[in-house]
Amino acid sequence: MKYTQAAGEKSTVKLTIDFSEQEWQDALTKSYAKVRGKYAVPGFRKGKVPRPVLENYYGKGVLYEEAFNILYTQHYPEILQKERDNFTAVGEPSLEVEDMREGNGIVLSAVVPVKPDVQLDAYTGLKIKKYEYNVTDADVEKEVGSVLERAATDVDVTDRACKNGDTVNIDFSGSVDGAVFPGGTADGYDLVLGSGSFIPGFEDGVVGMNLNETRDIDVTFPADYQAENLKGKKAVFKVKLNKITGKQLPELTDELIKKQTGSETVEDYKKKTRERLERNAENKGRDDTENSIINELCKHAKAEIPEAMIENEIDRMVQDFSYRLMYQGLKLEDYLKYMRISMEEFRGQFRPQATPRVMGQLVIDKVIKSENIKVEEGELDKKIEEQAKSVDKSAEEYKKTMDPRQVEYISNDIVITKMFDFLKANNELYTEEDKPAAKKTASKSSSAKAAADKAEKPAAKKTVKKTEKTDGGKAE
Q: How far apart are CA 99 and CA 258, in angstroms?
């Protein structure tokens, strides 16, 4: 087997692979042994048809497809291994027969999507926004309030109107143009106000109602509502309030805190809470700053990203979403049925996020390669020792429980950390407080700058989620 390679269009490499006549005949022999059981010829049992008879009955091409696959699986990985320093395949190749001459073997071509080379015109000396988050006393008190909420008891409310946070029991009947529509009626329905369980406007209309009051609530169904006959329609819900259940918070005491959280005193819990919130704030600030750095570097990068890389990233995002569903006891196929969307539509929701994520990873790889950032001697052992200490084990004990993937993960983490340390040290990081105060009267140019500053903020990670509502306006 001989081969040549040449750069193709849009981040591809074309491999031209020349197989000798002997290699081609060996592949045909293996193909015959593998596929002969699939074909029947009159006068022969399945799997017992001689090769010449099989080829004469079905044509010589009956063995070709499997022979191509045999040559591909035997030799393609070997070629990729030999060329690993020249290119990295990122998807399956497109195969074609270029030449097939009787007695002279066969020539196959493989157009391989490969990892593109990124043109990065700058990655140092840039001004990049840095994110810092402070923990306030109000943040700590909010956590304390959550403890009280969890320990609260339900009480019937009779002396005030209902408000957000209350659970109300209601009867309702919805109508469009005076006609009650199917699914728009219920009696004795329990609704937590402020939960967003109903279409916009419904819960706001219930807030403020008193016990046994009846009220007409005007709403408009969303334009993307799943029921075609209700999309964008104005509706009126007649609502009767049967019961209001509120929350009675307990007194904040050391005994309550110990029972609910395990901390000995209120002050001890507040101290631990502040420390936890500060750690979270520090981690969030670091993550958002690193996202900001990559986003800025991507503005200075160019690359022809092959479609295979986008699809691979979407595969990972779909798989991650599927895992999160599994933790909730759901299967992805059931979720898609529930949401009434196809897998193709579902994957399409990830595409806008997939492309910048791929570019970000390409930029990271480019910086690491350009600066020759790698794990130095002793760094891996030090990191393993730190992790071993966190689980009360010696480094030797911990290493015995590790598999190669863990070692690779730790090595990658070391490299990525060193890369961001380099980028933080070699770029000018500024916070929101560092920017000069804006003038009260904004000109067109200053407004444009404000919009540009806003655009610099890294996009928050989004969970693809679509809320389905019943015809009664409820979100299930």
A: 80
